Structures are given as structure tokens and as C-alpha cells.
Amino acid sequence: MAIDYSQLIPNNVDLSSDRRLQRALENWQPRFLDWWKDMGPDGTSAFDVYLRTAISTDSNGWANFGYVKMPEYRWGIFLADRDPNREIAFGDNKGKPAWQDVPGELRSTLRRLIVTQGDTEPASVEQQRLLGKTAPSLYDLRNLFQINVEEGRHLWAMVYLLHAYFGRDGREEAEAMLERHSGDPDKPRILGAFNEATPDWLSFFMFTYFTDRDGKYQLASLAESGFDPLARSCRFMLTEEAHHMFVGETGVGRILQRTCELMKEHKTDDVRSLGGIDLPTMQKYLNFHFSVSLDLFGQEASTNAANYYTQGVKGRYLETRVDDDHLLTGATYEIETVEDGRIVKKAVPALQALNERLRQDYIEDCARGVLRWNKAIERAGINFEMTLPHRAFDRQIGAFAGLRVSPDGKVLSEAEWNANKDKWLPTDEDRAYVTSLMGAAVTQPGRFAHWIAPPARGINNQPGDFEYVRFN
Ligand code: BYC
Q1: How far is 205 from 82, CA to CA, in rounded Å?
Q2: Ligand 1 contacts CB of residue 151 (under 6 A)
Q3: pTM above threshold 0.90
């Protein structure tokens, strides 16, 4: 369905037919814009940015490029097309028609999941608010802004659901989305990773590689939901999410490329003396962002997850392609957990292991990009391998929280951990070094900061010296 851009809130949900809902959202809109002004990318209101804007949800329409001032970006409500025959694919309600409204008994569960999902979107914009000041190129600056406006749109997607289906509670939750803030000691964001700082571009690329990828897996599970409006919202969000992970993978890849070039050119490992980011520091940042993102999947054995599945509100990754009964009542799944201070494998009811199963899908996906990075390092003739740390390394949530574990999965004493942790996680000194490289934004078209290689190709096939952002 095409999106009507003549309306104040572009949408493909026939918003004008429901005046109450339309008015409620039109009330929320200025508050969103105030939040964007206060907490969104700092000092950027006048910039013309070469952005992709969705004008319809089909394959031709969702990637329209042109210059836009970000506060004028057409944030709107776009759901993937409805399949009138869609059935719930799993759990106790398997085979029943997908719900077009919220079943009363699932109201609080669904609201909670939608709020948790929605909360991450503005959180990431807040985390990235100052990065524009130190962008390594116009190309990167534009990608940052693209991600920021789309996270804003993803907030709109969840706020629409809250307003349309959850009455007064939903409206209150929509307000609260703009009141919690990343890292705020009194009103923090809900999930841990979204209260961490993203102070530099290495962190940003690691975040978009690892944490946005959690977004992919959580959205994919919610896209299986029996609550059809949620499923359709998430399905369309996933099309936008792919670019965010692309920015992460290629961003890390371009830093690695530059580092390898410096190492080869100067025949040294001492990349810092040459103004680059050394490979061990890259590995430490990877360790940090991977483990923080693993926490986002929740407990290894979770009755919440079992209930979500049985009730039909949150499925598995690509649920309909899994070849089993989609009930999982008698099935077991092997997880790693902790017993008597040791990491052990244990079979648990598959229903309780759904967070862990999703985490496993995620880890395998993360590993594919690491493999591509390593191929590039190898092609450059450098003998170094980036690795994903063990899933128990430095965890704060779940069975491994509090356990000291090395990146290769050995349980350590507190003393062993303290003696080694600076080799595995970024130290204050590492962070200070990376921050020191983040000079004033590089704003000349076609130029790049010294520590990162140019991309292989431009956005929408634009040439290397394209003016992605015009400062007015
Ligand atoms: N931090 O039974 P458990 C994205 C809580 S990212 C703090 O395992 P459950 C994006 C948990 O709430 C995707 N608390 O929980 C990326 C529970 O609390 P209660 C975001 C945590 O519900 C980049 C308790 O611990 N979407 O889109 O099975 C940029 C017991 O845990 C954390 C979603 O997350 C944590 N990390 O699993 C922009 C999808 N983990 O009940 C955007 C919606 C757990 O004891 N959320 N807890 O009070 C969910 O599906 C689930 O809430 C979770 C947790 C998977 C997060």
C-alpha cells in the first residue's frame, strides 16, 4: 500500500479513518520533535543530508534518496502488507487466524515486549548524539544520520502500536519513551547495552555490527508474532535494519584495512605510533560489544520466553522454516550454564531455552562477519585473527553473570581475572587513545580520517567525492 505523504503523519494504516488515534499521534509528534531537538544528533537541524526515505513498503518504494533536513524527515507508520490468510505458526494457538487486535489476556505481555523494543530505538539515537562532531568523512556522517532517522522511525512504529491498541496505558508508555534517557541514573533505558556510552566511531561500528544485530534477531522473532500488527511492523523494520549492520561490518572492515595497510607499509605492529588503531585494541572493543550484546538475549533458561512462545506472542528466528511441531512441549535443548562454579552443558526443556537458541543463531551470524574480516586481514598478508570470545565471557545477565571467564572459556579466579582483564577489555588508556584519534569531523568530500580506509563504493552508487551532507 502506498504511503500518503500529504498527511502530517505519513502512513499506510489509513490513519485518517480513525480521528481519535490520529489526534493522539498528532499530539505525540511535537513531543517527539522536541526530543529529537534535545537528544538527537547535536547541532544538525540545518544540514541537508542525502537520506533514504521510505515512500512505500514495496521493493521499489522503500529506498528513495534525496537531500532532507533531518527534523523534516517524514517519520511515519509503515507496516508490511497484510496477508489475510495468515495463521499463528506456533504455540498453543497454532493454526488459528493471526490476531488483528490484542487478546485481553495477553495485553500486559505484549505491551511489555513492545515497550522494551521501542525503548531501544531512541536510546541508540541518544547514545550516538555527539558522534557527528568527529565523523571520519561525509560518507560516514551520512550513514550515522541515516541510522538515527530510521531508529526514530522504529520508535514511531512501536508508538503507533501502543496508541492504536493499548488505550490510555499505551499513551502513557509512549510518553515514557521520551522521558527515559540512555545512561540517566534516575530514568535509564530498560536494557543494559542501551545505557553504555558510544563515545567514538570504533564503538559506533562495533555497536552497529553487534547490537543492531540483536535488533535483527529480536525483530525477526517478533515478526513471527501472532499479533499481526506487531509482526507486520517488525517485518518492515527489518528491511531498514540491514543497512545498519552493513555500516557496522564495513566500518570495522575499513578500520582493519587501514591498520593492515599501515602495518605493511611501515613493517611494524606499532600502529599507534602511525596514528592507526592496532589490532589488539580492535579485538578488545569487539570483546566488549559482543558480550554486552549477548546479554540482550536474556537468561539462558527463561520461563518468560517459554510463556511468550506458548502464548504465540514471540516466535523463533524464521519460525515457519523450522522443521518441527512448533509446540516444543516434549522437546529438550542443550544449553551451557553454570553448576558449582563450572561451565556445564545441560539439556533443558526447549521451551525454556528459547532465548539461548536465539542467542545461538545470533552468534553464528556474528561469526560470519568475523570470518570475512579475517579473510581481508589474511589477504593483506598480516598474521592475526579476530575471534569472538566465549559466550560466558564478561556477562552481566544470565547464568554466567558474576563468573570470571577468559575469552577462550576458562573459568578463572578473581586474581587471575584481575591480572588479565586489561588484555581482554578496553582499558581507560585504550579508550583515551581511540578518543584522541577522533579529531574534528572530516567535511571535505572524498576525504577520510587517517585511521580508516574509504568504502568500496558510495551510497546509491554515488562517486567517491559525493557531497553526502551540506552544512548550511
Ligand atoms: N538488561 O526471563 P528473562 C534493537 C530482565 S535491540 C536488563 O531472560 P526475557 C536495537 C528481563 O526483562 C532489540 N534487564 O527475560 C539495536 C526480566 O525482567 P523481570 C530490542 C534484562 O523477557 C540497536 C529478567 O531480566 N528488542 O532493536 O525472556 C539499535 C529475567 O530475564 C536484560 C528486544 O529486546 C538486559 N540485557 O528476555 C537500536 C525484544 N535481559 O521479568 C535498536 C523485546 C533480561 O524479572 N524484549 N533482563 O522483571 C524481549 O524479548 C525480552 O524482554 C528480552 C529479555 C529478550 C530482552
Answers
A1: 34
A2: yes
A3: yes
